[in-house]
């Protein structure tokens, strides 16, 4: 076991998370506490918890890795992830807290009383689909991480990781999950800033401007890997000092784009448009993010939580960009070799741990791995608690057993957490070679096509009807899943439409149009005046 120090650091982080969950086990005695911690989480803790929940493996591993492979084009994902939070803060943070109680479906049901079963059903199905799909990249990232640390095979790794995710939720409920996410968000934030500072000091002699200067000279590995001469050249310089291979490739490819040149890794206009739509509107429909606004006591505290998260994400994503450039510089021959061998997923997902190992050996590798594991477990716990809350509150309590007791609902929620973890593990085995950032992007596309139109229309459009909510969400869900799985199976087109990297270009506009058309054809606008007064109350 050659990485015992790194493993020990990761295990210490996991042990801390287990202790926190165990410590808060008594807070799962009622549904209100299990679902949303009784609304007693402070804005500061909630803000850090949302940072830990949101800055997942896709951000910590996927975005930095994408920057390391293609330069500035790999950063568009981060810009989309960040910009969406402004939309959340402006459009739905306060109304969501003013009207809802446990799940996103509560807001819709508050407006359309009497239509609860239909709305809860489509909301619950959408939540489960989203949460399972979002769990997959977290588990995939963990599988690759432990493969790097210990040489473990993929299957046992994802089984252990998936099991841990379920245990955290079952033991600690939302309160344990919140404190875990806050601490893990701080670990993730600290690990990234430490890597940034350490990289500038150790590789660029403490000169941060040197990172940009080097970026102007670097031919992105994605371009170099497509040139056989560059591949052979970098392979012969695998043990050279950082920068030597970069200089040699630049001399070989003097006219090639640099790491700060836009357009290197961008796909077609349709692919880019679809990804932008998904990222910008997706956060409006992510249940595991939106449920966090129910864990504080007021709309004012919900807004404050979002503001804390926005400031944290601004610093985090700025640091991710520079760390990605540092990784490109320090790992250049290795990245070109991985791409030339067709291992783009490994290159993207494992750039950060490889950089830590290169700069600081097992100790720094352990710090980075602990940060990555914190990101995965934090996001996964948030996803599971959101999904199980919807299962228990929307399905079991809302439809199957309206007269069920708290004890019965809690039992159903905990069993559901275990079942969902098993499903996510199975799908993670199937999708192990996918880039985690792209998998998360697909989830944003599904969210943008389901909850996002329904919630925004419910809060801001008086003509929205209950029939439009159900039909519009169902249309968005089916269409987005159809194009998502078509990409997984390698299908090139559906009814003449190209299968894109993200389904949002087709599914979100279709969901919006269907919602508007059905609203104009029907007339059940719900308890309109009462709802609007409550949603927009101060």
From TrEMBL:
Indicate where this protein resides in the cell: Cell membrane
Q: Name one Pfam family in it.
A: SSF
Which parts pass through the membrane?
6-24, 45-69, 75-93, 121-140, 152-174, 186-205, 275-296, 308-332, 363-391, 412-431, 437-461, 468-489, 504-522
Domain of life of the source: Bacteria
Extract the coiled-coil ranges from the record. Answer: none
Sorted UniProt keywords = Cell membrane, Membrane, Symport, Transmembrane, Transmembrane helix, Transport
Q: GO CC: one term?
A: plasma membrane
Q: Does the keyword Acyltransferase apply?
A: no
- What is its membrane topology? Multi-pass membrane protein
Instruction: Say where the protein is mainly found.
Output: membrane
Q: Which GO terms describe its molecular function?
A: acetate transmembrane transporter activity; symporter activity
Q: Which InterPro entries match?
A: Na/Glc_symporter_sf (IPR038377), Na/solute_symporter (IPR001734), Sodium:Solute_Symporter (IPR050277)
Biological processes per GO annotation: plasma membrane acetate transport
Q: Which PANTHER family match?
A: CATION_ACETATE SYMPORTER ACTP, SODIUM/PROLINE SYMPORTER-RELATED
Q: Which family does it belong to?
A: Belongs to the sodium:solute symporter (SSF) (TC 2.A.21) family.
Q: What is the protein named?
A: Cation/acetate symporter
Provide the species name. Answer: Glaciecola punicea ACAM 611
């Amino acid at each position: 076991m050659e990485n015992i120090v790194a493993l020990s650091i990761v295990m210490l982080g996991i042990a801390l998370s287990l202790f926190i969950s165990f410590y808060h086990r008594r807070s799962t005695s009622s549904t209100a506490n299990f679902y949303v911690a009784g609304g007693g989480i402070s804005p500061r803790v909630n803000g850090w918890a949302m940072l830990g929940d949101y800055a997942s493996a896709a951000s910590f591993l996927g975005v930095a890795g994408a920057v390391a492979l293609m330069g500035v084009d790999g950063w568009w994902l981060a810009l989309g992830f960040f910009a969406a939070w402004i939309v959340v803060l402006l459009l739905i943070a306060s109304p969501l807290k003013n009207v809802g109680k446990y799940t996103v479906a509560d807001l819709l049901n508050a407006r359309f009383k009497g239509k609860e079963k239909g709305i809860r059903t489509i909301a619950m199905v959408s939540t489960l689909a989203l949460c399972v799909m979002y769990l997959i990249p977290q588990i995939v990232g963990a599988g690759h991480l432990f493969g790097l640390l210990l040489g473990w095979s993929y299957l046992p790794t994802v089984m252990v990781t998936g099991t841990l995710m379920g245990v955290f939720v079952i033991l600690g409920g939302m309160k344990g999950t919140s404190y875990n996410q806050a601490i893990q968000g701080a670990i993730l934030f600290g690990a990234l800033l430490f890597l940034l500072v350490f990289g500038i000091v150790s590789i660029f002699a403490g000169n941060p401007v040197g990172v940009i200067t080097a970026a102007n000279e670097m031919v992105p590995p994605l371009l170099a890997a497509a040139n056989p001469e560059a591949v052979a050249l970098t392979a012969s310089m695998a043990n050279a000092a950082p920068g030597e291979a970069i200089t040699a490739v630049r001399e070989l490819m003097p006219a090639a784009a640099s790491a700060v040149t836009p357009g290197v890794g961008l796909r077609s206009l349709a692919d880019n448009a679809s990804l932008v739509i998904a990222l910008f509107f997706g956060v409006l429909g992510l249940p595991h993010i939106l449920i966090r606004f129910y864990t504080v006591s007021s709309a004012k505290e919900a807004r404050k939580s979002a503001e804390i998260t926005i400031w944290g994400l601004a610093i985090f994503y700025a640091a991710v960009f520079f760390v990605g450039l540092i990784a490109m510089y320090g790992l250049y021959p290795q990245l070109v070799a991985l791409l030339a061998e067709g291992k783009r997923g490994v290159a993207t997902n494992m750039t950060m741990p490889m950089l830590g190992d290169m700069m600081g050996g097992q100790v720094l590798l352990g710090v980075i791995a602990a940060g990555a594991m914190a990101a995965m477990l934090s996001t996964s716990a948030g996803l599971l608690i959101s999904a199980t809350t919807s299962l228990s509150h929307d399905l079991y309590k809302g439809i199957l057993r309206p007269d069920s007791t708290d004890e019965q609902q809690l039992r159903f929620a905990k069993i559901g957490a275990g079942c969902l973890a098993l499903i996510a593990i199975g799908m993670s085995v199937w999708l192990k070679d996918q880039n985690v950032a792209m998998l998360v992007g697909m989830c944003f596309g599904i969210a943008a096509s389901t909850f996002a139109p329904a919630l925004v229309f419910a809060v801001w459009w008086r003509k929205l009807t209950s029939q439009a909510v159900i039909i519009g969400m169902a249309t968005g869900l089916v269409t987005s899943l159809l194009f998502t799985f078509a990409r997984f199976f390698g299908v090139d087109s559906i009814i003449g439409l190209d299968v894109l990297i993200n389904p949002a270009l087709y599914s979100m506009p279709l969901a919006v149009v269907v919602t508007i058309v059905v609203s104009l054809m029907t007339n059940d606008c719900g308890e309109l005046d009462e709802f609007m007064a409550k949603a927009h109350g101060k």
